[in-house]
Design a protein that fits this description.
Largest sheet of chain B: 4 strands, antiparallel
Oligomer: heterodimer
Helix content of chain B: under 10%
Strand order of the largest sheet of chain A: 5-4-3-6-7
Structural class of chain B: mainly beta
Distance between the termini of chain B: 54 Å
Largest sheet of chain A: 5 strands, mixed
Order of helices and strands of chain A: HEEEHEHEHEEHH
Distance between the termini of chain A: 45 Å
Strand order of the largest sheet of chain B: 1-3-9-6
Helix content of chain A: 25-40%
Number of strands of chain A: 7
Number of helices of chain B: 1
C-alpha cells in the first residue's frame, strides 16, 4: 500500500512537472497570417554593413514593406527560402518592397560572399551580430523571417521553413496598404514574445 | 489512463520546444584506465533529443558543419575518434538524403599514454562541436563539454 502511494505521488509529481515544463517551454510560432494592427510592435532599427561596406539601417527603408530574413550558409532550410526571396524581390521591388538578409555566420564574409556570388542573390545581405539578434528576440532558430509593414512594425514572423505562398500573401497584403504614420523604428529591443520569435 | 497521461506529458514538451535549440549531451561512459606507454580507448555516449538531428562527422554537403570531438592538451595524447555509421535521412529542406546522427549513440575516443606520463588520476576535457536541425529549422553550432576521468598506471 505504501509503495502504491509512493508510486501515485511520483506519478502526480511527474505529471505536474511535465505540465509546468510544457507551459514554460518556448512555443513554436509559425504565423499563419498577418498580426492585427493593434498587436504589431515597432521593428528595432539596426545598423549593419553590406558586402560593399555600406551601412544598412532598417530606418533607411521608411515607407517600404520589408522582408527581413535571418539566415546562415550552414542552414539547409534557409537555402530553400532564398530563391523565393529573390523571386519576391524581382516581382515586388517596384511596389515599395525590399528583402534584407542578415547572415548569422560566425565566419562572416569569408563564408557568405562566395555563397552570395554563387547563388546570385539580388537583395542586400548584411552580417548580423548578437545585439541585432537579441533585439529581434534572440533568433534561436534559422531561418527566422520577419515581415515589416510600411509603418515599420512587425506584421508577421515565421520561424523555420515557411510556406512560400503564405509569405507572399503576407507581402501582397502589406503592399496594398499605405503607411499610416511616420515610421517609428528606434533602437528599442523587443522581448521575444512581442516579436514572436520564440 | 495513467499511461496515456504519461505519454502525453512526455510528448508535449518536446513538441512545444521544436524551434528551440536541442540540449545535446556527451558523457564518458566509464573511467579510463591507461597504462604508460600503451594505447587506451573509451566510449563517449552522445544523446540527441527526439525530433532533432546533428550533421555527421562526414556531412554530405560542403556547407554543413561536421560533428567533431576535440580534446584540450593533457596527460593523454588524443588519437582517432571513431564515429558510428551515419544515417542518410531525407528532410523537407533537402533535395537528397543527408548524412546525420539522431538519438543515442557512442563515439570511441582513442588515446596514447606517454611512457613518461605521471601515474595517478586526472581528467581530460574535450569539446563536442555539433550543428543541429529539426525538420524545418537549424540552430547555430554549439559545443558541449566532455569530461573524461582517467587513471594512469
Amino acid at each position: 500500500m505504501r509503495i502504491f502511494r509512493l508510486g501515485c505521488a511520483l506519478l502526480v509529481g511527474f505529471v505536474l512537472g511535465c505540465l509546468i515544463y510544457g507551459c514554460s517551454a518556448p512555443k513554436p510560432v509559425r504565423a499563419a497570417s498577418l498580426k492585427p494592427d493593434k498587436d504589431r510592435h515597432a521593428a528595432p532599427d539596426f545598423s549593419l554593413k553590406d558586402a560593399n561596406g555600406k551601412t544598412v539601417r532598417l530606418s533607411d527603408y521608411k515607407g517600404k514593406v520589408v522582408l527581413l530574413d535571418f539566415w546562415a550558409t550552414w542552414c539547409g532550410p534557409c537555402k530553400i527560402e532564398i530563391p523565393w526571396f529573390m523571386d519576391f524581390e524581382r516581382k515586388h521591388k517596384d511596389q515599395g518592397f525590399s528583402v534584407l538578409g542578415v547572415s548569422m555566420d560566425d565566419d562572416g564574409w569569408d563564408a557568405v560572399k562566395p555563397f552570395v556570388n554563387e547563388v546570385g542573390i539580388n537583395y542586400r545581405i548584411m552580417i548580423g551580430n548578437d545585439s541585432t539578434a537579441e533585439n529581434y528576440g534572440g533568433i534561436e532558430a534559422l531561418p527566422t523571417t520577419f515581415l515589416i509593414d510600411r509603418d515599420g512594425k512587425i506584421a508577421a514572423v515565421h520561424v523555420g521553413l515557411a510556406s512560400k505562398s503564405e509569405i507572399e500573401n503576407g507581402i501582397e497584403q502589406l503592399l496594398q496598404r499605405p503607411a499610416n504614420a511616420p515610421r517609428g523604428a528606434g533602437s528599442v529591443s523587443l522581448p521575444a514574445e512581442f516579436v514572436g520569435a520564440k | 489512463m495513467p499511461l496515456a497521461a504519461l505519454a502525453a506529458c512526455l510528448c508535449l514538451p518536446s513538441l512545444w520546444a521544436q524551434n528551440s535549440p536541442p540540449q545535446v549531451s556527451a558523457d564518458a561512459r566509464e573511467k579510463l584506465v591507461a597504462k604508460r606507454g600503451a594505447s587506451a580507448q573509451t566510449k563517449i555516449a552522445v544523446s540527441i533529443p527526439p525530433g532533432y538531428h546533428v550533421n555527421s562527422n562526414t556531412p554530405s554537403e560542403d556547407y554543413l558543419i561536421a560533428l567533431k570531438l576535440t580534446w584540450t592538451p593533457g596527460a593523454l595524447e588524443p588519437g582517432e575518434v571513431v564515429f558510428p555509421k551515419p544515417q542518410l535521412e531525407k528532410y523537407e529542406f533537402s533535395d537528397k538524403p543527408i548524412s546525420v546522427f539522431t538519438g543515442d549513440f557512442d563515439l570511441i575516443a582513442r588515446f596514447k599514454t606517454p611512457a613518461t606520463a605521471p601515474a595517478g588520476p586526472g581528467v581530460m576535457v574535450g569539446k563536442l562541436r555539433y550543428q543541429a536541425c529539426n525538420s524545418n529549422a537549424c540552430f547555430p553550432p554549439k559545443s558541449v563539454e566532455v569530461r573524461l576521468s582517467y587513471q594512469i598506471q
